[in-house]
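Fold this complex.
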Amino acid sequence: MSDGVITVQRLQCGHCGGELPVMGRYVTFQCRTCFRRCVLTDDGLAPISVYRASPPEEREGKIVYLPFWVLTADIDALRKKVASVMAGLAEISQKIATAKIERETSAPDWMTELGMNMMGVSSEEARRPAVIDHSSLTKRLPSRAELEHILGRMESAGRWHIYIPAFWTANTRAYLQIGKMMTRSQPVFHAELFDDPDKPVMCALGPQDAARLVDYIFFATLPGSIQTCPDFMKELSLETGKPVLIEFPFLESPGSLESLVGGFHIQSQMVGTDSLE
Amino acid sequence: MTETLDKARAEAAAQDVPHEAPASAETFGVSCSACGGSLRVHEGERSIRCEYCGAALLVTRPRGVRGYILDPSISEGKARLAALKHLSEETGGRIKARHASIIDLRMINVPFWRMSGMMAGWMSGDEVIRYQIEVPVPGPEGTKMVKRTQEEKRPFSELTFKRIEWSTPACSLRDLGLQGISLRTQMLQWNVFEHEMQDRLNIALPLKTAAQAQSDGYSYMTTLAAPAGALVKASRFELFGNRLSIYYYPVYVLRYRHAGRIYSITIDGNNGSVIRGDVPTWRKITARSFFLVPAFAAILAGIWWPLLIIAAAATYIYDVAQSGTILPPVRWARERLERWFGGRL
Amino acid sequence: MQVNCRLCGGENSIHPGQEMLFCSYCGSALAIEEDRGPERLILPHDRSDRHAEEALRSFLAARSLASPKDIRLEFAYVPYTMLEDDRGHLFGQPGKGVWPEAGPLTVPPAGSYRFFDEPLAGGEKVIPLDEDPETLALAARVLFLPLYRVRYRAAGKKYRALIMGESYYVFADVLPPERPAPFSAANIIAAASMAVAYLFIGQLGHSAAARILVIMASALIGWGAFTLKARIADRSD
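Structure:
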């Protein structure tokens, strides 16, 4: 039952045919001959432009650049999506609430009708609402005010990006943590095309894999009160533009790295050593 | 000519970016597309350099289910010896090769579904917290405080991005005596599975579909990541890296007959260890009753022989009381004697 | 099984479970079409009535049940349609017209299944598949499994069972009663002899108390020596 056979093919620049350097687990390559960069996608090598964000001000110390895939969120689509999901859930909730009221007024046996396990509770106590939990029936909805606040903040920023860490790390939690921190900070930066042949880009995640992680990073930035509404969250997804690979500057100090555009700190151990060279 | 080639190779290799070697020692066999040489690719490597011709190679991982198979390191003869040795050891040397007649010995490649790589997941639901409270309950003698277990549901959500290493058998392991074993793929040299192999090797067909395996894998991830006792209402998962693949592991199954019963021993085809071995067992003599009961009987007989009958009757009454049913005396006597003195050395 | 390449017409062989292949003539990647209905597979088995009988005896002996007599066997390849239950678990449903004892199969035997082809049945009987088209449309596969149908007598009554070929797994819902308990005559005679021996040893004592002491002492010594010997024997293995 195996169809996708693992094979090897010549590692060649798609533009000039020159041999590309071997990068091990990293998926970005730069041709020695024509200096064009390419990235390994699910469908093979594809040309790519890599950008570098410059540090906003002069800082003393060693600066390392960490690659991130940056995707621009389609806020209009998100607003429409949220509206349609909320409408759908409100309708279902309404139906359940009506059914519940009808049953409550009829007979004290409505709990057993709804299949709730009420062992050890006499019918006298059953009429008292204290022990009962209805969360399995109703759909927990996030507050409209909160959703409006989030959407409003995204819209007033003009552009809203999702940042997916593209560097290698053995610490898997780091992807979510760093992606979340970067996305929450929505840094303002100035990036330029980067094709310095002496500086290879150590990118360990392909663009399609990055796109698959978008929803998870986005979820991580939502407050707990919204994340704990499973019926809402399971319908939610974020549409974005194509991923762009941008390297961001971090200031190295003993044990930690400071994001020069985002203003937050991360522990050095969250990032693999290759990325810090 | 070779000198210039070596130099070119060295120069090209010097351009390669130095990097940490992937941690896993698991490798897959491929052929170099330039010179045809056999190379091994480490899990996680996306580009490698051919050690024969120096060509730079890109490792393609097409979509679809990938299959891997392991050559057995143990021959049939060695497997048979290992099984018989196990039989002898487990029975304290009593049952040797000549006492057991071997019915059959076959090598079978057992499929396992494996999910490895990184998995991003989100789940949300309710955590159930139970605690005890005291509740006043009115009764005929006034209000009493009674302990009741209260359940509280607290919403939770969990985002996770974990390395996943999970495998599950892709066919019934029961028949092969392999229940409860899991696959360890590291430190082994796998070859790419080709369907043509089904013609010459004994390959057990995977009967669990890829979709089922994937859904089982996601359920496993959910139970790992969710807090204990939680009810998960919604979840989403995305698997990166190697995704889902099938691994065929060689195993020898030997069946033998002893004293009218059939037993089977399963030998690991890669390292020769016994994965599972059923051996005949029997009841051993209970030394204590074997020595002491006749002594007691002799003592009673020596004092006054009717005591023996009284003792027997007392034992009968005790056994009847214990079992709660009236036992027919003859059958009881047989069973009692068997219990005291039955068994083998 | 042979299929023709859609592009060059070359013949390629495919195997059960294969969803894609590279044509050996033109090298193009081909997806294997699924519109021919569920895969029909057979698990070829070398019929051995002797092994099946042994499997039955072993099964009953392991459970201390009465021994079978007058064992009569029938063999056929029986079709099972693999379907999913509400929880997504696969199970095999025997086709209509199959022996009444055959029920749903939760665990198909592990083995090298091949695409169904009459010659693979080795001349043995094959019960044809008779199933509703709606059920077949839902099925992923149909497995023709080697089954022995067994009739035997035990403790005076008639019983039936099914034995799966290859795995020799026994399926039976009605089982014979337990066999009579074993009776170790030799051990009991030995114990009786020991009691007599104790009586004689007891004569060495001249009072009732002394006799009792002597008997108990010799019993304890005997027990101790036996246990020690057994421990030494175990350790030397």
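Chain B touches chain A through 74 residues (CB under 8 Å).
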